Amino acid sequence: MARINDHYLKLAGGYLFPEVGRRVEAFRVAHPDADLIRLGIGDVVLPLPRSVRDAMHRAIDEMGTEEGFRGYAPDQGYPFLQQAIARVEYGSRGVEIAPDEIFISDGSKCDSANIQEIFSPEARIAVPDPTYPVYVDSNVMAGRSGPADANGSYAGLVYLPCTEATGFLPEPPDEPVDLVYLCSPNNPTGSAASREQLERWVAWANRNQAILLYDAAYASYITQAGLPHSIFEIEGARRVAIEFRSLSKSAGFTGLRLAWVAVPRELEGRDASGAAVSIFDLWKRRHATKFNGVAYPVQAGAAAAYTPEGQAEVRELVDYYLANARALLEGLGSAGLRTFGGINAPYVWLETPAGTGSWEFFDRLLEESSLVGTPGAGFGPAGEGYFRLSAFSKRDRIDEAVGRIEKLRF
Amino acid sequence: MARINDHYLKLAGGYLFPEVGRRVEAFRVAHPDADLIRLGIGDVVLPLPRSVRDAMHRAIDEMGTEEGFRGYAPDQGYPFLQQAIARVEYGSRGVEIAPDEIFISDGSKCDSANIQEIFSPEARIAVPDPTYPVYVDSNVMAGRSGPADANGSYAGLVYLPCTEATGFLPEPPDEPVDLVYLCSPNNPTGSAASREQLERWVAWANRNQAILLYDAAYASYITQAGLPHSIFEIEGARRVAIEFRSLSKSAGFTGLRLAWVAVPRELEGRDASGAAVSIFDLWKRRHATKFNGVAYPVQAGAAAAYTPEGQAEVRELVDYYLANARALLEGLGSAGLRTFGGINAPYVWLETPAGTGSWEFFDRLLEESSLVGTPGAGFGPAGEGYFRLSAFSKRDRIDEAVGRIEKLRF
How high is the pLDDT of residue A16? Predict the structure, then answer.
């Protein structure tokens, strides 16, 4: 039999969300009449903006004509979309990212899973703890870790604790690493990095010749003035950072799939001989070889989200979910729970009641309140004792969820 | 600086099609008024079928409503599409593939590039020569080869020559390998494997405990009766094969992106200890971790291609391109060129005039006839002396191309 990639066998249990899904499915089978409220997976629920739909309809009609049909898209994305993103997301904030430094893709999950491929199998990796599981799992699959211990921590990875003491965001490590995954606004803790924190990271990366893999998929949820929306707002970041962005949570694209990676041309790694190699060139080669572009109607819809009408609709969506987050924060607070995040992010991070593990809290909420959240421990050992609730729901369901939680005794 | 994946530096030159693109672009700049005919990249040109467009419009309208909005798709695909594919592509031909053995994706390029990840870094790989470059490049990137020689052949890979003597399809190797990439109808040679040939491969793989990675992206172009459309038409294939299929060239989806991988549950590899491991489980884990589903409107459009109306439209598209291929075969023949393929595939494989290298022939066709094809050598050393012309064009352009070729003196 053909030899498999043994690193896959190190993966601890299932991927978090399928495991949550299995428990919910078992509950649904046992309680077919339960009125489930799902605040687990961070999936948007509001209808797709009109400007996006209109543009997609037009694109599909075009593809039904001799002249308007489009086959393979440029693998890096259509220039019309790269330009819209460069203008609205970067240029308007005074950030220098050229359109052709933007690689359009079908999702930040794919991008953040794939980016490790262009680095050495021996690269030393740091991840926040708790963290979005894809950063860890993709590196375990690639053989950059040893086995997992009983807590689900992998030997060889450097974990950067995000605790109450660190403001639920990671601090630079003391030991040398090659790649650091950062996420701000943070998934799962819902905290967003300040300019000062990011300046500290960029200075550290420049000093230590490390590369920051900066996931800002939730950037549009930043409400507080002065917080950077892009790592490239920080001086010196073009020499040390790659940024991941997405339309999933801004324009409601979870079911359409559109994201991008911004890779500055200055960014360099080194080969075995110590010579500098352009990271932009490596990623471009990967993209050309293993990806074939995003559907034209989806790119047309994404570009529409950057028109003035589209931007207004996006703002409305984001504000709706942010109001949900505020309602969650207030309701959980009055139920006596300590909460974090939820101001610059669509996630509320709550401390589970003393002595209650996070999977135990998950099961209790599911069994007693028909409520689905995500156990903090599923995001890493330092997530134990915490629980993530997503603000991506209809408002009446959020209010109903808060009512049910208030009825529980903690 | 962070250490890069040095294997990328072994990649010889650019990926073939970007290199073709660069030469064409240089020609366009030098000859802005030239009437270029592009028979290079195999990209469809006819409008998207009405049934596909109608279904996509409906899906987009649904996503504009509170009740009809859909967020993340199931990462393996919507059951409605898995079922349609299982029924029409497999069940109707008496082939046993269950809906949940079908993994919907955004393209066969991605799938055939990604599949190697679940196998050992030390797995021994065989590829046809000439071949679709993605099979080779994805394995070079993963470190399964040494450096390339002057012909572009990589040390450590096993090349299976597809020559006139072998009917332009590979024969099983004499040496042991773990994974074999097969492509039928073949890209680039345009030949399709007979039942007998596939039976020989399946028997060989069962005997040698190898896995066949069977790319049948062009299956809908098979016209001759008795030729298998799926490797799973062969007894015993479920224990040794993975199949790649696509809607790109059948329903005109190159600009929409939809494909699938069929992985039978019986298929096994072995881990370091020699224990059997389910390949289905490994691929499922990769899919869940590194992929996030295909856009709902695209899946809805794909399902429409499997309705009776959709199937009739697909047949019409395929027949149009097959008629083009016949016109190419006839025209090239009367121009005195020897041709192959083009009967069960949208590609014509022609022998370049004696003494003319395939890149030389490419440049000559471009300079003298403003005609773009693909040099055989770009697909591998055994492609030297051959040239691929794609039938994916409007008929009047095919006729014009034939006229120009007839004017050249060979």
Answer: 77
